[in-house]
Amino acid sequence: MGEIVEPEEELSVKKPKTWATGAPAVAHALTYALGQTSPQRTALTLLTINQAGGIDCPGCAWPEGAPKERHRNEYCENGAKHISDEATTRRVTREFFAEHSVSELAERSDYWLNQQGRLTEPMVKRPGGDHYEPIGWDEALTLVADELKALDQPDEALFYTSGRLANEPAFLLQLFARAYGTNNLPDCSNLCHESSGSALNETLGIGKGSVSLDDLHNSDLVFVVGQNPGTNHPRMLTALEETKRRGGQVVAVNPLPEAGLLRFKHPQKARGIIGRGTRIADQFLQIRPGGDLALFQALNLLLLEAEDKAPGTVLDQDFIAAHTTGFGVFNDNIRALDWDDVLAATGLRREEIEEVHQRVLKSRSVIVCWAMGLTQHKHGVPTIREVVNFLLLRGNVGRPGAGVCPVRGHSNVQGDRTMGIWERMPQSFLDALEKEFGFAPPTRHGLDSVDAIRAMRDGRAHVFLGVAGNFVRATPDSDVTERALRNCRLTAHISTKLNRSHTVCGDTALILPTLGRSDRDLQATGEQFMTVEDSMSDVHTTRGRLAPASPALLSEVAIISRLAHLVLGEEQGITWQKYEEDYDLVRDHIANVVPGFHDFNRRVREPGGFTLPNPVNSMTFPTASGSAVFTANTFTALTAPPGHLILQTLRSHDQWNTVPYAMDDRYRGIKGARRVVLTHADDLAELGIEEGALVDLVGVWEDGVERRANGFRTVAYPTPRGSAAAYYPETNVLVPLDSVAERSNTPTSKSVIIRLEPAEPAPVPASQD
């Protein structure tokens, strides 16, 4: 496959696509797969991915249908790329680390680091050193254990988790952390959907979605808000196509026109290859970033006024009376809404909003789906609470074809939270742990991801253990985050592939390589499987099919179990060593601790697994009042000073989370470069900046500190006036650590105030090939 070289940024811009997937998606997926591994391995992974008893796609958390309803090729372009990226035959060996110092690796791009391949053995960077060197598993885990035992108090340790982690290791990690004495369990949910959990727990009593695939298929009206399914979870387009086929309608609400929501060509259907495909969005609202709160408040006002004109015909008064509280305060708040404020905040015409209102009135069932376009704003939690208000008004919660649908972007991020990966698990969960294992878990709330960075920065946390993920590139305020990690005595990462986090080291740094989803997991009692939970609370197995990338790899269950045994021994009577041998033992504990997992081992072995119960769907709301809660949310609008823009950070199409697979964004017409800023042509003209100009993005914040991302090319693009868009993680440096959503502490990555400054071209570096 040849040596991987750093790609040169040679920008080419075409018109954005007006449809997604189809034959080009198939071709791009296969080209990437065959560039990573052999045709035989490609076939083995792609024909088992998302099949009952096969590999759960690590790419996203979108659910599959019933086993008999699944296509033989039940994956999308990006899922195929992701599993091929993990199944690569490229290897990172001790010779690689001998050749490349940490300082050199720190200068490499995210793309280059990822393309080097799978990690093969434990590596250590010792204090004062600049190279990783081989280390045995016993010594590596003893290093971590000794540092943990030497801390003055358990809260000086941090246990970070990414959503790639399956249920069994996630349960063991939180058990280890709590038996050790801390609730410091930051995770990637803190950075993306924490606003969803905060708002839904407050209003409905459970921080998860309430709908199934069948609900989506049979809904009269589906809102897709602040979300780009064509890139981030493309199999959702198949579900929306089915919604349309059955007579439902779709309203898309987003600052950018996304190709997949305009027209979808199903790559596994003849109509998607030779036909025009399916128009997905019946109406597209191109909203200003952060204007969603104002939009749903306006829709709610229109519903209240429609009820005034025809009492008893618009709102579901029986539902409101029987199952909700707080309507009066909500009603008074919405009645004071000013339409001029709404139109300024949304950038929409009143006629557009009233057209949506008419669609709502004609719909018996409504679902609202959303992603980080709603959650990563300062007012993200109030926005989602207002979405819940909108659904409650017409009883669109807890019945078929209706409900809330936060779409998780990482494969088991919801399952990790169910397993206890949260710094603020409820007392009922802690009590269940105590009953099962005989120790009293700590009750003091731990640190989330943002607070974990603050603790490392301030010298209050000294050991960082990251399980999966790429913490450095997933978090805000890149310079602050990197300084914080370098302030630690020890950083350790349980990983499958090389990433930027491995180059940002504490005094001692460890890389602990682990099995991937696609790898067979053979232990003392035989071949093991693990389980995951998707966005719609379906729990099912995942089982690797390939020989491990290296005989030196350990599973995440093994690494966590061995480390916990070294730190805690048998003090609490927890049989850590047995868990590595037989994952059924872990599932037996989960069955006794986590609601809904009774008879776990038997039920999950059934084809397709099982669905966790959701109390909302039986009209039970586990809130303090026992009812669904209407809320009064203060109107908020994002504004930028003259000469400034509101920037939202986003993924390119050829990207999975923080890792780019190419320098392209095919659907948006961007090729060959990632350091681009998409800006309306009229804004560029008003600012006196030419299209294609080289600019620096300068973030302006209340703390008075200017943060700068250098060397971006301007691209004239159909964004809302006064806004711009650029890719993360390159723009994470612009998001201050202290700019977070109210209540959820989620970074405000979708509402960054910037100005564009002309930049001098950087000198061309010497070739590093």
Task: Give structural notes.
This protein has 769 residues and is an alpha/beta fold. It has three domains: 91-191 and 412-521 and 550-577, Rossmann fold; 194-406, Dimethylsulfoxide Reductase, domain 2, CATH 3.40.228.10; 645-758, Barwin-like endoglucanases (Beta Barrel), CATH 2.40.40. The chain has 31 helices and 33 strands. Strands 6-5-18-17-16-7 form a six-stranded mixed beta sheet. It has a six-stranded mixed barrel with strand order 25-32-29-31-30-33. Helix 1 packs parallel to helix 3 and helix 9 packs across helix 21 (380-393). The longest helix has 18 residues, at 292-309.
Topology at a glance:
Layout: E1 12-13, E2 20-21, H1 23-36, H2 39-46, H3 77-86, E3 91-92, H4 94-99, H5 102-106, H6 110-115, E4 118-119, E5 123-125, E6 133-134, H7 137-150, E7 157-161, H8 167-180, H9 194-203, H10 213-218, E8 221-225, H11 229-232, H12 235-245, E9 249-254, H13 259-262, E10 263-265, H14 270-273, E11 278-279, E12 283-286, H15 292-309, H16 317-323, E13 324-325, H17 327-335, H18 339-346, H19 350-361, E14 366-370, H20 372-375, H21 380-393, E15 403-406, H22 413-418, H23 427-437, H24 449-457, E16 463-467, H25 471-474, H26 478-486, E17 490-495, E18 508-513, E19 522-523, E20 526-527, E21 530-533, E22 538-542, H27 556-568, H28 576-581, H29 583-593, H30 600-604, E23 610-611, E24 628-629, E25 645-650, E26 655-656, E27 659-660, E28 670-671, E29 676-679, H31 681-687, E30 694-699, E31 707-716, E32 723-727, E33 752-758
Helix pairs in contact: 1-3, 7-27, 8-27, 9-21, 15-18, 15-19, 15-21, 24-26
